[in-house]
Amino acid sequence: MFVIVRHGNTFAAGEPPRRIGARTDLPLTDAGVAQAAALGRHFAASGWRFARILVSPLARTRQTAQAILDHQQAPPVPVPCNWLREIDHGPDENRTEAEVLARIGNDALTAWDKRAEPPQGWIVEAEMRRVAWRHLFATDEGPTLIVTSNGAARFALLADPVLIAAPCTWSDMKLPTGGYGVIRRGADGALDVPVWGHRP
Q: Is residue 168 part of a domain?
């Protein structure tokens, strides 16, 4: 089982959200810390014990992972992975959503949210990410927690032909802040997505 978590909030209530990626390393807000703690309580109450923890090197993901691990008994040490780092939004980095929409248009943003097709100027490294997710899914080291960002998480859904062919199980590629998805391998060896976009 692979539990893929998006970090908690990085913008305070009333603060205009911005496109932050690999070049903008913001910490969690108080609300983001609360979201991460809620994830930790939820996973503990579900009886999930993680054998392996993979995290993006960014502060917001490391903080989220630690808040989750605070609710685990004798958890493993998180392993930072550069391939889980958020994408680079190029000219839209640290811009408000209104500014981003004015530059790229709604169709381009929809293509990114629904099909992971990046707008012009964004640095995504899509194939590298798909390969990394594919390699991860080929391993079997017990329940694995992955804490990352929205831009990186979506490529998990594009790493396997069965997942690509079944978008009805994940109608929106986006994970909400403080939300998670689950990808698991069944007895027949095929991957499926029983949960995507759930926020406890």
A: yes
